[in-house]
Structure formats: structure tokens, C-alpha cells
Recover the amino acids of this structure.
């Protein structure tokens, strides 16, 4: 068997595949393959280990029907048309548990950074703008006892809630497609509808998957239902929020601040006006960027392929 790996992933997964006698070829360039290059390259391989940068859409899949399995280096797989893959008999796997703690940490850090204007104030020091003490300047928010609203109460949302309740005794509410009895028991959390989440949250942290129901859901109307003192945190996908609407909500005082690890588009333009707001903290989609998380992502993505070719159950099969 031959596996094409579309990015320079950590050695953990590569060694696992090679130890199984599977031939591996790795695309080691920083720039991802174009869709045309990827289709052409895949013709000589039976399995594909891919990242979110690759568009595995219907057109690609119909030209690569010979593939046995596609394994995603990551938890999200919105770049893969898994329904079309299922129709074509192509298995799709992911790495759902690998980045839970790392991403929850980033959400927590962004909440802190935005609440105290850390990124803006760091830039002010670099620009030699550290002036005299002003009792009314650069005032932030204290977080103790606030209400944390989680949109998408999965693994990462659970860990974000644990951090916020443990550190700041926050009340937890959540909006999810299904009831989460374990979450309610653990945190005393309350399930609310989307409008209630918007209206009641002091911190609204987004941890949902990107799909037709969540795409663009945080728009002008949604921001206007939030508290003027609210912080909006998004570490899921940039397409979940309408970026222009978010900017207008921030500059107009509709909400207080925002912390983003994901933007729309990505990479973010260096002249994007969001980058210059005092009440915003932005990181370049680094939620999973720890050595431990990336190693585990590599291992889980490779494990999917190994399990498939051993004839075993693929534990992280998504289709």
C-alpha cells in the first residue's frame, strides 16, 4: 500500500505507517499542492493523509475513486465531502481527541488577552507609546463570576468550561444540538436556545463544527442580541462568524471585545482593520500548535490508515 501525506507532519505517524510496511510519500513544501496537483499526485496512491488546507470536494473524489481511505490530520473535516466519499466507498477518518486541551487553552488565553487588551498594549510598547499612568486608560474586564456561554458543547467546549469555572467560578450555559447530562451534572450547566445564549452570555465561546447550520450564524443580528459588555471568542472556524459584522459590532460598541484564533479569510490580511482594535486579540489558527497535540494528531491520523489495512475497525471513522 502507498500513502500520500500532503503536509510535513510530525514523524510519529510517519514511523507508524512505515513500521507497517506501508510506502509513504510526503509533500514537504510549505505551499500546499494546488487541486490539480493533488488529483494528479493521488493517482499512484491508495490512501491519503490530508490536512484542512486540502480541498477534498466532490470533483476531487470523482477523479480519485480508487482511494481506499482519506485520513484527516485534525478533528475538523469540513474540507472533505464525506457524503460523496461514502457514496464512492472511500472511508474518511479524523483525529478528534488530539487537540482538545491545546485548543481549549487557546480559547482561555484569548479570553484573558481580549479582556485585558494584552495584544494592543504589547504593540503600544513596541511603538514607544508607554506613557505616564492614567487611571482611566486601557481599562479591562474582570472575569470572576461571569456567565460563560458555550456554542457547541463537545470535547473542547467541555474543557473550556472546566477552565473557566475552575479559575473564575463562572456560571456555565450552553447551546448544543443535544442534551449533555454529564456536562449539566459536572458544571451545573444549563442548556439554552441560541437566542438565550446570545442574551445571557458574558463570554461567548464558539466550539462548533462548520456546517450549513453554523456557517455565518454569528452575524449582525446575533451580535445585536449580545450584551454590550460581552466577549466573543472563536476557536472553531472563521466562517462561523461574519467578519465584517463582527468588526462593526466592536467599533460600534455592540459588544465589548473579541478573541479569535480563526478568521475569514485565512490567512488574514495584514491590513484587516480588526488587527488594529484595542479590544481584540487574534492568533493565526494555532489552536493545535503544541508539540504534544501535533504528535498525537499525527499518530491518530496514521492509526486510521493502519487499522483500515489491518482489517480492523477504524476507531475514528466519520463516514
Amino acid at each position: 500500500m502507498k500513502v500520500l501525506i500532503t503536509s510535513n507532519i510530525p514523524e510519529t505517524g510517519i514511523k507508524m505507517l512505515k513500521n507497517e510496511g506501508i510506502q509513504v510519500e510526503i509533500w514537504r513544501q510549505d505551499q500546499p499542492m494546488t487541486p490539480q496537483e493533488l488529483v494528479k499526485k493521488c493517482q499512484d496512491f491508495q490512501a491519503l493523509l490530508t490536512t484542512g488546507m486540502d480541498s477534498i470536494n466532490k470533483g476531487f473524489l470523482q477523479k480519485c475513486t480508487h482511494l481506499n481511505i482519506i485520513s484527516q490530520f485534525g478533528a475538523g473535516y469540513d474540507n472533505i465531502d464525506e457524503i460523496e466519499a461514502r457514496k464512492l466507498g472511500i472511508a474518511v477518518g479524523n483525529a478528534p481527541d488530539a487537540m482538545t486541551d491545546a485548543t481549549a487553552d487557546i480559547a482561555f488565553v484569548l479570553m484573558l488577552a481580549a479582556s485585558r487588551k494584552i495584544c494592543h498594549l504589547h504593540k503600544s510598547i513596541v511603538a514607544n507609546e508607554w506613557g505616564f499612568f492614567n487611571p482611566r486608560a486601557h481599562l479591562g474586564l474582570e472575569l470572576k463570576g461571569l456567565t460563560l456561554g458555550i456554542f457547541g458543547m463537545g470535547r473542547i467546549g467541555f474543557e473550556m468550561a472546566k477552565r473557566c469555572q475552575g479559575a473564575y467560578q463562572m456560571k456555565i450555559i450552553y447551546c448544543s444540538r443535544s442534551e449533555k447530562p454529564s456536562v449539566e451534572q459536572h458544571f451545573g450547566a444549563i442548556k439554552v436556545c441560541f437566542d438565550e445564549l446570545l442574551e445571557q452570555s458574558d463570554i461567548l465561546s464558539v466550539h462548533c463544527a462548520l456546517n450549513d447550520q453554523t456557517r455565518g450564524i454569528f452575524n449582525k443580528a446575533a451580535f445585536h442580541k449580545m450584551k454590550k459588555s460581552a466577549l466573543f471568542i472563536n476557536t472553531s472556524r472563521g466562517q462561523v462568524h461574519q467578519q465584517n459584522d463582527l468588526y462593526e459590532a466592536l467599533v460600534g460598541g455592540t459588544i465589548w471585545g473579541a478573541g479569535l484564533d480563526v478568521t475569514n479569510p485565512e490567512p488574514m490580511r495584514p491590513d484587516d482593520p480588526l488587527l488594529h482594535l484595542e479590544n481584540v486579540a487574534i492568533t493565526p489558527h494555532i489552536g493545535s500548535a503544541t508539540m504534544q497535540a501535533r504528535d498525537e494528531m499525527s499518530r491518530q491520523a496514521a492509526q486510521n490508515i493502519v487499522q483500515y489495512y489491518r482489517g480492523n475497525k477504524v476507531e475514528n471513522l466519520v463516514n
